[in-house]
Amino acid sequence: MSKDHIDEKKLERAIRKIKHCLALSQSANENEAATALRQAQALMREYRLTEMDVKLSDVGEVESQFSRNERRPAWDQQLSASVAAVFNCSSLRIREWCKAKHRVVERASFIGVTPSQHIALYAYEALLTKLKLARKQYAAGVRSGKYRSSYSAETAGDHFALAWVGQVYGKLMLLVPQGDDAPNAMGDGRELVALQSQDKALIAEYLSKITVGKSRKTPDIELDLDAQIAGMLAGRQVDLNVGIAQGGEDPLSLPAHTTFSSSTEAA
After folding, report:
1. Which residue, of 95, 104, 138, 175, has the fewest CB within 10 Å?
2. What is the domain range of residue 166?
3. Is 66 within the bounds of a domain?
4. Is the pLDDT of residue 5 over 60?
């Protein structure tokens, strides 16, 4: 990041304020929670609109602390791709040798114009924590016979998780202003559209300078209908006004989601 371009102290304050607002959205008081979410929206929009003159040096990449052996499951990949789409970033699947585990692991990374990649990572890790718990509980229910399935508990859990992510995607879309949907669309809404286009171009230029493998086409599979319904219902119950987990340094309160866009696998 260019120190001449973006003031690092200002950036740190902006990210800290946004995280603080997201954490406050866990308030049991619906009015307070809604106010906190609107403040988070406004801060993200305000920061980007005052930092319009960005360049390639302002594009950065951050990696998740969470990793999986060999390959992350499809629902995890969908989650990172969805978060990236909402926050105008790109997500990569990073494979690297882990000295502690003595094996190759895969983790998600986010590339965006600062500070979007940091907020995307924060949201992803918080949502992943919540999703893993929901999937684990559903799979346990299949094993115990509480939920019926013609698939194994693990596979049914995967199908549940995919549906869960799909339902929560819309909640994230409500959290982050999207172009003409932003407040005062006649003013900063149009500027936001321009910013998003500019950011996409910068990210594409950044990606062109690094080695990125081609994403694999996901084969069509027949999903467990019962698991899908359960995942959809669980996703609908995720409340933006309720704190969900921890991500990054501070407690976070974000919703869940999924845009079924494919993440790119890094070579």
Report:
1. 104
2. 8-265
3. yes
4. no
**In-domain check, residue 1:** no
pLDDT tens digit sequence for 195-239 = 778 888 888 888 888 766 666 666 566 678 889 888 888 888 776
**For the whole model, what pTM was predicted?**
0.71
d(CA 68, CA 83): 18
- Residue 97: inside a domain: yes
For 80-119, the three-class secondary structure string (H helix, E strand, C coil) is HHHHHHHCCCEEEEEEEEECCCCEEEEEEEEEEECCHHHH
Beta-bridge mates of residue 107? 94
User: Is 3 part of a structural domain of the chain?
Assistant: no
- Is the bond preceding residue 255 a cis peptide, omega within 30 degrees? no
User: What does the pLDDT read at residue 50?
Assistant: 65
What is the signed CA dihedral for 27, 15, 79, 192, rounded to 10 degrees? 100
80: pLDDT strictly greater than 90: yes
Instruction: Indicate the number of domains in the chain.
Output: 1
Q: How many residues does the chain have?
A: 267
